[in-house]
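ok so for the tutorial part 2 we go from a plain amino acid sequence to predicted structure tokens. step 1 is just haveing the sequence, like this:
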Amino acid sequence: MLRKSLVMVALSSLVFAGCGDDGAATDTGTGGDGSVTDTGTGGDSSTTGDATTGDATTGGDATTGGDATTGDAMMDATAPTCGMGETECDMMCVNTDTDIDHCGGCGMACTDPQVCDMGGCADACSGGLTECDRSCVDLMTSNEHCGECGNNCTMGDSCVDGTCTPAMMMCPGGLEACGDACVDTESDPANCGDCGTTCTDPQVCSEGGCEDACADGLTECSRACVDTNSDPANCGDCGTTCSDTEVCTDGSCVGCAAGETSCDGTCVDLMTDNDNCGSCGTMCRGGGRTCVDGSCTRP
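step 2 — the prediction. this is what the tokens look like for a chain of 299 residues:
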């Protein structure tokens, strides 16, 4: 009976030690005095504290908490920045004048086979516009259908007169792009009549041809024959340049009226001019569009 009692005491001690206050399992055997030694896996080092279940694994900002993964950085999506003439619909930039799914406004879809014509669903496109994928577009100015349906101008290019043109080559009226420069082929001795046609010194470039002297009424300025009565770069005399808010009139730089800008030597109102809408050289074409408040607008 004494031996049985000792065994029961020993077993009770093991059970008590295995269910300690911190809930950890402990056991490395029994000591010589019948007690249980606690040097196993108990304590905070294995299952408690920050090392395992704290911020480093499941808590805090490091893995699943805070802004690092599921916070504002991922949840706060922002709308795209759309260009002139575009509207943000469903996180996309669209042209509501031509988009069959957003014709005239976001979510206003046209029923097949209708087309989107100047912001309205119709059976056919208006005069001057061409149907491309049920969108009525101006082939002369559409960046998605430049010159023909499906001819999409690459990023940075614009459709000018039905041709995709790099932005740096878009020249104001009266000038032509030669390389990376806008020149007047009527007077430029390095591009006389056409890009790359060079006049031999001392010839001058007069009215697009290499000549020995300038035509009547023109003045030679650095081998270029110009009209000093109207040339803003040589106004009244060679080298006299008018500012962006001036035009050359009768050989003098004259300021434009308030609210007007000089475009190709002419004072215009960028808010209403159909040939210079919003900026010099931006033309409103097709579908009866006119310049209203600096933007090409359908009637």
